[in-house]
Amino acid sequence: MMDFSRQLKVQGMNAETQARLAAAKVLIFGAGGLGATAIPYLAAAGVGALMIVDDDAVALSNLHRQILFTRGDIGRNKAVAAAAFCEARAEGSFQAIERRLSTAEIVAAMQAADIVLDCSDSRQLAYQLSDAALFTGRPVVFANAAAMGGQLFTMQPHADLPCWRCLWSEEVLPSGNCDALGVLGPVPATLGLWQALEAIKLITRFAPSLSGELLQYDFVSMRQMRLRVAKAADCNHHKQAADMVDEAVFEGDFAAAKMQGLRIIDIRSAEEIAQKPLLQADNCILMSALLDNPLQYIGRQEAVLLVCAAGQRSRSTAKLLRKQGFAGVSAYPKAW
């Protein structure tokens, strides 16, 4: 039996709140720098069930910050290794999912959970989880970390509160990630701990969690800021089943797209195209123009590949068009 005596001495924690933890199910996307810290602390706190989703394998470069793993785990799936770690040290159900989930599978998994943690460091998945949260009513604790900075945002799926899209519009290009900027181990570990703490507070309600605020930390100066996030006036906070559409991402290169008969459409701005032309493009159509009147440019069943500067706009545009019945539209997910 686990001993929670020290935990139960915290003001607001008691046998009832501990029972809520034991009955709770937390869905965690990502067992990397953030998840490798959040996962064991949730298990050790007495959360009854963890569902861990990660299709990546442990690499030597992970070990400096993902201390959940050892050299013996190199090459092993991260979700499997994380679940095994928890099983050896805590009581509960620890399920590993070794692949990426479709939108329908994400929705189903969230409906079966109480709280969701986004530890993936994937901006596109964050948008999917935000939409699914509004559809299912499940809160999501988001975090990201790179170099010497990090952010924490707890999304309460409520009509009057901001969602992830309110915080980060898809029109705003990302400034970098840990692959590009590097990261020191304690940085994502700290954010992962905050995610675990937020999940515990949401489950037990022994203390208030973040609501409508972004917690931002500069680890160079050790300064913390709390920023109020406004709900975007044009953000759809009433997601329906029709909104939960799987995106289509093209995994090959432009030569493969040509061989498969896809028409390549560059949806970047004229300035972006001038700086770095895409010679393989069949057409250059501004994203806003394509969305305003898609039938003017593409057929409903036409095989089309959309390309943008970072992959975000192409993915969001392809998803919007597929929702309108343009089933042949896919996105080039990489930066160009």
TrEMBL record:
<dbReference type="GO" id="GO:0005737">
    <property type="term" value="C:cytoplasm"/>
</dbReference>
<dbReference type="InterPro" id="IPR000594">
    <property type="entry name" value="ThiF_NAD_FAD-bd"/>
</dbReference>
<dbReference type="InterPro" id="IPR001763">
    <property type="entry name" value="Rhodanese-like_dom"/>
</dbReference>
<dbReference type="InterPro" id="IPR035985">
    <property type="entry name" value="Ubiquitin-activating_enz"/>
</dbReference>
<dbReference type="GO" id="GO:0004792">
    <property type="term" value="F:thiosulfate-cyanide sulfurtransferase activity"/>
</dbReference>
<dbReference type="Pfam" id="PF00581">
    <property type="entry name" value="Rhodanese"/>
</dbReference>
<dbReference type="InterPro" id="IPR045886">
    <property type="entry name" value="ThiF/MoeB/HesA"/>
</dbReference>
<keyword id="KW-0812">Transmembrane</keyword>
<dbReference type="InterPro" id="IPR036873">
    <property type="entry name" value="Rhodanese-like_dom_sf"/>
</dbReference>
<keyword id="KW-0808">Transferase</keyword>
<dbReference type="GO" id="GO:0042292">
    <property type="term" value="F:URM1 activating enzyme activity"/>
</dbReference>
<feature type="transmembrane region" description="Helical">
    <location>
        <begin position="21"/>
        <end position="43"/>
    </location>
</feature>
<keyword id="KW-0472">Membrane</keyword>
<keyword id="KW-0548">Nucleotidyltransferase</keyword>
<keyword id="KW-1133">Transmembrane helix</keyword>
<dbReference type="GO" id="GO:0016779">
    <property type="term" value="F:nucleotidyltransferase activity"/>
</dbReference>
<protein>
    <submittedName>
        <fullName>Sulfur carrier protein ThiS adenylyltransferase</fullName>
        <ecNumber>2.7.7.73</ecNumber>
    </submittedName>
</protein>
<feature type="domain" description="Rhodanese">
    <location>
        <begin position="258"/>
        <end position="332"/>
    </location>
</feature>
<dbReference type="Pfam" id="PF00899">
    <property type="entry name" value="ThiF"/>
</dbReference>
